Task: structure prediction
Amino acid sequence: GADSGVPEREVLRTELGTLADRIAQGGDGEGSMLEQAASNLLSVVTVRKVGGDAEGDGPSARMARAEAAMVEGDLAAAVQEVEGLTGPAAEQAADWLADARLRLQAEAALADLQARAYELLTQTN
Result:
């Protein structure tokens, strides 16, 4: 999480896949014994959308596009898709989203530092 420093992109990509599975399974861990049994079955095999061409604004479509963006190395696009989640899916994604935003901020700060360093090195007196 954000408490242990800036997460690596590969960690974020892996965690996004896990998050997509949880969101596809639905539920929040509560419910009747029948619902919990169904959830246990779903945890063995999860069927969910994949690919950047997934259509719609539902959680599974957003997560499919977010995962595709991560595979392409576009963390900002993945964050944008996850930011569009609502309800329980948004709550489940909150920690990942915080970590991903932290990564984007760190990368922006590093790029700024590199640009400033280059500017200082190339100045003529």
